Amino acid sequence: MMMVIENYPRPDFKREDWTDLNGEWDFSFDQPVFDRKIQVPFCYQSEMSGIGDTRVHHIVWYRKEFIMEKGRLSDKSLLLKFGAVDYEAEVYINQTYAGGHRGGHTPFEADITGLVSEGKNIITVKVMDYSDADKPRGKQTWTGENFACWYTPTTGIWQSVWLEYAGKPYIKRIKATPDLERNEALCEIFISSMERVTAEVSFHSLPAEGVMEMDLGSLIISCENGYGKGILALPDLDLRRDQLTWTPEKPNLIEMEVTLQNDKVTSYFGLRSVCVSNGRILLNGEVLYQRLVLDQGYWSQTLLTPPDEESIRKDILLSKNMGFNGARKHQKIEDPRYYYWADKLGFLVWGEMPSCYMYTDNTVESTSRELAEFIERDYNHPSIITWVTANESWGMRNIKTDKSQQSFSNMLFYQAKALDKTRPVSGNDGWEQTGHTDILALHDYELMPETEEKYDCLEDILNSHAERRFVLADGQKYLGQPVLMTEYGGIAFSAEEKGWGYYNKVGSEEEFLKRLEPITDFLIKSRKFSGFCYTQLTDVMQETNGLLREDRTPKLPLEKLEKIFGKKIYE
Fold first, then answer.
1. Nearest Cα to 352, choosing from 315, 387, 376?
2. CA distance 559 to 561
3. 426-464 confidence digits (pLDDT tens)
4. Nearest partner of 428 among 420, 419, 416, 418, judged by Cα
5. Three-state DSSP state, 416
6. What CA–CA distances, in Å, run from 102 to 99, 162, 303, 365, 373?
7. How far, in Å, are 133, 230, 264, 336 from residue 382 at the CA level?
8. How many angstroms separate the CA atoms of 33 and 411, rounded?
9. Measuring CA to CA, which residue among 295, 298, 355, 288 is closest to residue 327?
10. Can you tell me whether residue 93 is helix, strand or coil?
11. For residue 403, how many other CB atoms are within 10 A of its CB?
12. Which of 86, 142, 448, 508 has its CA 20 to 30 A from that of 557?
């Protein structure tokens, strides 16, 4: 089965002139002997790569030939783009170094215009992925075997590779910041030239069903030293603003077409606001109750890489059919097309940094670098409404008492706030949080129908512990942030003998629902919480506590789950 990309690999930053390089590449372990074939963008550990070898190889090599037609690069720049390569890549064009990147989850590109010639050209990529624990790994094991909730690693190219024919100069980034209160949007453009040039940006709505398309005007932006900006004034629709704003019910988008001399890029954003006020989270000024599902984003045949675009849509639609209005993408920076479909389908997303599992100076540097690249790539997606900079003290195990690790968590929080003032940030999701967080997130798998009374006094919980770890790090105080139960449940069936779930397994559908419904009902109706996140969407390898099996077949009738997770506060 080949991966067929019907849409551009990055739908939020699209050039019309591009070449897909996914498919068969030459490949080898350890040395550049290229004695195998691999299907890109699937990692060698996955079945769909054509290799399916789960043994550890710290160095892998890729090679791909492409043809450059005569005159193809006249007045053009040729960009070689990688969606993600885990972990450190060196790229060569015709045996000449073209560029590199460190970081397993974020994109990079190389301008290879001066390195190619007419006719045959060869791309060679060396990838190094060592088992060090002080770099962002997410759910990839570093011990040589799967254990607990850590799974088969992903080494090498695991997102799309493609060529883009850009202009001279070319557009590097488009950043749109909506201001719902002023009914404006700040448009920032980053370009490859330091010279003074002019860009034109035209805007029009990409309306949800039942809404008319609108021409929203244009801007002429002067760029100098690689940067320019302008402000778009949007029409004041007052009571009809649902024709322009982005919500889960009406996911309207605003398209931007940016032209810079002979370069053109299409992007989009959503007009919406997310803020914290009086202990609640507001979306477009209205109280938002979040019904999230924890989603690891793994597939049995492809690991972290979606098998195809329909698989992405299916996961979102299945989640919505179970009553969820969003997902916490756990320990994974997702394929850009996931966020695109979340934008299109009206599905809320928490964007979460993959964790390290050791605290060194490299932990600080590598996490900070990838967090910045994550926010840069995905800033424009309206579906992303929260950044999660750390989870359960992973990579900062002594944060409860260690001031330097507390400072690290605070640094990531303020870095995210400096790069993005439009979204809340969850600083250390789960426990041992500092006061430098917009959200007080609790993880409690001991929440059962018979234990919910412990939340009769929420203040007591916040000043001590929800499950086994203290909610706040030493010296920290609760500052009135919204409280969300961001991990609970994790129920598994006893029929799944080889896998595990949290606490006692259940033997039947009736027993499952009898345990799930009261605690979810409590989270919705108690009014002490601004939302929940149920663990989890699918089984993943040895962790068999999903609502769906790995192949996405439901374990329970979706309509029964929708009545539980989608229940309204007043029901």
1. 387
2. 5
3. 999 999 999 999 999 999 999 999 999 999 999 999 999
4. 416
5. helix
6. 11, 19, 21, 11, 11
7. 32, 20, 22, 13
8. 44
9. 295
10. strand
11. 12
12. 448
In 3D, which of 489, 493, 487, 488 has the Cα closest to residue 511?
493
Long-range interactions of 299-302: CB distance < 8 A, separation 24+: 299/550, 300/47, 300/550, 300/551, 301/46, 301/47, 301/48, 302/42, 302/46, 302/47, 302/48
Residue where the block lists tokens 């989870």: 391
Task: Report the 10 Å Cβ neighbour count for 81.
Answer: 20
Query: Cα(446)–Cα(466) distance, rounded to whole angstroms?
Result: 8
How far is Cα 542 from Cα 496, in angstroms, rounded to an integer? 10
Is the Cβ–Cβ distance between 205 and 244 less than 8 Å?
Answer: yes
User: Residues 6 or more apart from 283 whose CB is under 8 A from it?
Assistant: 247, 272, 273, 274, 385
17-69: pLDDT as tens digits: 999 999 999 999 999 999 999 999 999 999 999 999 999 999 999 999 999 99
Q: What's the 3-state SS for 328-386?
A: EECCCCCCHHHHHHHHHHCCEEEEECCCCCCCCHHHHHHHHHHHHHHHHHHCCCCCEEE
* Residue carrying structure tokens 């982005």: 246
Residue at 391: amino acid letter:
N
